[in-house]
Amino acid sequence: MSEKIKLKISPAVAVYVRPGTSSEIRLAGCAAAAGMLPFERVTLLFCLSKDSESSVKLAAIEQLELLPEDVIAAYLDSTDAHPSILEALSRISLARSLILETLSGRPDLSNKPDGIAEKFDEDEPASEGNGESLKVEDEEFLSKYKMAQIMGIGEKIKMALTGDKEWRSLLVKDANKLVSAGVIKNPRITEAEVLAMIKGGIQNDEIMRLICANREWIKNYSIRKALIANNRTPIQNAMRYLETMGEKDLASFAKSKNISSVISTMAKRILLNKKR
After folding, report:
1. How many CB atoms lie within 10 A of CB 243?
2. What is the spatial distance between Cα 252 and Cα 61, in angstroms, rounded to a whole number?
3. Pairing between strand 117-122 and 4-9?
4. Domain count of the chain?
5. pLDDT, tens only, 183-240
6. pTM for the whole thing?
C-alpha cells in the first residue's frame, strides 16, 4: 500500500473541493483562486488539477501554469508546503529554479515516494467538526499538447470554444473539422490570430468560410488582403475583397503567380479602370 500524506486545507479551499461539490462550483474555484492568499491559491488549484471533470482539471492546470512568481515563492516559503504540490510546480518553467533551490535546503520535501496517493483533510475550526477528506491519485502534470492527445472530441470542441490563445493555436490544427472550426467561434480570438491563420496557409475550408462570414473581421484591410492571397478563400469572396484594395496591392496581385489566374486577371482589370 502506498504511503499517504495528509495535507491541511482551509475552509476557503474546502468550499470548492469537498465531496459532493458540483462541477460548476469546482470550475468556479479555478477563477476564485486568484483572490486567495498564495498558500490557499496554490493548494486549491492543485486539488482541482486532479479533478475527474476534464473542464475543471484543464482550467486548474492552466491557472497553475500562469501562477505569478511571487505567488510561487510565497508558497515555497511556507513550512507546510506539500511535496506533491512542489513536484507539480517544478514542472512550470518559471518556478523550476525556485523549486530546486528550495528542495536542496528542505530534505523533508525531496523524498516523495513513487505512486503516492494524497489525502487532503479540511482544516476546519473545532466548532465545525473535523471536515471532509478528498483522495486523489498522483498523476503526471501534462502539457497542453499531451493533454490534447488524450482528450475526446467533445472535450476538444469545448476547449476550442473557450480555451486561451495557446489552446486555440493548438486545436485550430486538429484533424477534426468540428474542433478546428470551434476555435474560430471562440469569443476570445483576436483579429491578429485570424490574420496569422490565414497567412499560415490554413487548409480547412470550413474555417475560411467562417472567417469570410464574420463581418467585423472583414472590415480589417489586412485580413481581406490575406484572404485574397489564400487560394482556399472562396473565389467569389476573394473577387469582392479585391475591389477594396489600394492600387499598390492591386498591382501586386496582378503580377502574382501564386494566386488564381482569375483573381490576377481581375486585379489587372480593376487597376486599369482606376487609372483611366
Report:
1. 11
2. 47
3. parallel
4. 2
5. 999 999 999 999 999 988 777 888 999 999 999 999 999 999 999 999 999 999 999 9
6. 0.50
